[in-house]
Amino acid sequence: MRPGRHRQLTLAASVTGAVIVALDGTVLTIAQPALQRDLHASFAQVQWTSTGYLIAVAALLVLAGRLGDRYGHREVFAAGTLGFAATSAAIALAPGIGWVVGLRVAQGLFGALLQPATLGMLRAAFPAERLAMAIAVRSGAIGLAAAAGPLVGGALTAHFGWRSVFLVNVAPALAIGVAALAVRVPAPRDSGAGVGTGAKAAADGRTARLGLTGACLLAAALACLVHTLVEVPRTGWTVGTALGLTAAVAAGGTFVQHQRVAAHPLIPRHVLASGALTAALAVLLAASTAMFGALFVGSYFLQEVLALDPLQSGLRVLPLAVMMVVGAPVAAVLLRRQGPRRTALAAMALVSSGMLLLAGADRSADSPAMAGAFLMLGAGFGTVMVTATAVVVQQASADDAGVSGGLKQTIMNIGPALGIALATTSITLIAPGLAAGQAVDGGSRWTAAAFGGAMGPTLLLLAAVVALGVPAAARLPSRAAGPLPPPASGGSGLPRRP
Questions:
Q1: Measured distance between the N- and C-terminal CA atoms of the chain, rounded to whole angstroms
Q2: Over residues 117-128, mean pLDDT
């Protein structure tokens, strides 16, 4: 197959896989009330349809990326998409809430398999000078899916019932899964600025053990952390959430110690030794934490304080999603011309300015300042995503693209949960209303006046979180990666085909 044709198919598969995962989460949120009524489930049971999925995904992303590095991203991607399609169809046929929760956990496992592979395939297929635009297309598609998800979910649920939201992903997932197995892939070239080089790195990447002990420790740490972060907005800080955080810290500390002494660590030491890669992850964590915390605050204000329905509030936030889609290719151009450091610093300034504008905006549904704030947030965060993802993928050798992509996707699971937990804790401490978790009869957790008083300081706190990421952004490379000669060996972790 011609290299150009191969790159097009790889980009299509990567974008489709990423969109399927993004769309799945947003459409389910809209369908959950109908699911609860139809299956006679409790609120806590319905919440576990999301929580169980998030825990499974976050716990396994890095291991899934390592599997791709060893056995081939295309094969792991195919397994993930086909499994995702099968579990989606099974959920649509589930007879009870227990089946739905269990199958959602299984779906999270397959989602973890396919997500790092979408980046690993791009890293193997695209030369460094074209990689940023491919990542921008992928990021823009994710933004579009996130924006369309509530509309698609609402329409499907209203006309065909909640089961239809799980069927919508089956056909595309099956199609790209089968195509990934059927397409014959040429031997890849390592044309990026990876940290690993040479035949020895390639051979080590194919023969090294997976580091299952480290994988179990990291999975336990991330599962406890994500569960705690998801529970804090719902119940507040309780004995259970405190124990969960303690367990996450203990497991995380044990994992770090194991990484230092293990002969075959889960995350190769040279990956974390890359200052640019760790800086990009730190930038992404700070930006995603602040962004999703602000999105939670803005959405709560629109729906609970101004009493707008989900569609009306979604339309108010639509400028954010539009700017993520429109700004992604612009970010790729800026990245090539200005380099990652300047692009990331400008994007972080835009995100922080958007939060400051939102904090001081007129508290009305049609506030021009609020619309402008969402525009700035979308443009800034979209640029951060493109820049940080490009640095993560380019800085990894093709042998480590999967584990690097897994780290990036893990950050994108932890950051949003951390941001919502931080926003909820801030509002609870500031607002003189009800404590977290004490809402009555499904009503608002805080009074309108209490929330309005706490909204500004909470957004200022989130803007400060963005500022914490600025030193990391200043450590990014000053120039975009250029093409390098191919290594002595293929070094992609993908099996060669005749």
A1: 11
A2: 86
* Encoded amino acid at 94, one letter: A
d(CA 185, CA 496): 7
Please give the mean pLDDT across all residues of the chain.
Answer: 82
- Name the DSSP letter for residue 445: S
Same fold, 1-184 and 201-208+268-479: yes
Query: Mean pLDDT: which of 79-88, 147-156, 308-317 is highest?
Result: 79-88
Q: Are 121 and 203 in contact (CB under 8 A)?
A: no
CB 226 within 8 A of CB 414: yes
The pLDDT tens digits of the residues spanning 263-272 come to: 888 888 888 8
Nearest CA to 492 out of 265, 208, 79, 202 is that of 202
pLDDT in tens, 130-163: 888 889 898 888 888 877 877 788 788 888 888 9
Q: Which amino acid is at 224?
A: C
d(CA 366, CA 345): 30
* Tokens 């835009």 sit on residue: 350
Can you tell me the distance from the alpha carbon of 349 to that of 117, in angstroms, rounded to the nearest whole number?
Answer: 31
CATH number, span 1-184 = 1.20.1250.20
CA–CA separation, 334 vs 448, rounded Å? 41
**C-alpha–C-alpha distance, residues 476 and 276, integer Å:** 5
Give the pLDDT confidence of 44-71 residue by residue, as tens digits. 788 888 888 888 888 899 999 999 888 8
Spacing of C-alpha 186 from chain mean position: 29
Do 118 and 62 meet the contact criterion of CB atoms below 8 Å apart? no
Angle between helix 275-300 and 310-359 (nearest 10): 120
pLDDT digits (tens, 9 = 90+) for 383-420: 999 999 999 988 888 788 889 999 998 998 888 888 88
Q: Which residue has the tokens 């397409």?
A: 183
* Token duo for residue 91: 């959920």
User: How many other CB atoms sit within 10 Å of the CB of residue 327?
Assistant: 26
Q: For residues 369 and 263, what is the distance between their CA atoms, to the nearest angstrom?
A: 55
Asked whether 122 and 14 are in contact (CB, 8 A), the reply is yes
- Top CATH class of 201-208+268-479 equals mainly alpha
